[in-house]
Amino acid sequence: QLAESGGGLVQAGGSLRLSCVASGRTFDMYVMGWFRQAPGKGREFVGTISWSGDKTNYADSVKGRFTISRDNTLETVYLQMNNLKPEDTAVYYCVTGSTPYDYAMDYWGKGTLVTVAS
Q1: With 90 as the cut, is the pLDDT of residue 26 above it?
Q2: Burial class (CB in 10 A: 0-12, 13-18, 19+), 66
């Protein structure tokens, strides 16, 4: 199970940190990631973090502004979002896979809404 939290309303240029707690399996064996879906648009890749946390990958649209990290002892992955823009408004989903050490994403959380006001 994946449970996101931390969404809300923020002014442009502000910051938010999303959290996702994963339960039900050995957390440190799985790649974690974030996707988002803006109103009226399809789901968009945001980024991933390896099972050990030493490798991250980001979409060009968020590179340099967003940071993904994880705490394997707390079974939690984070998405730190800085310098937010109105176009970052979306429902943000925590994602993970069904296969250890694999980057295919199969499981999705319910999402948390981030609204960036101009």
Answers
A1: no
A2: buried
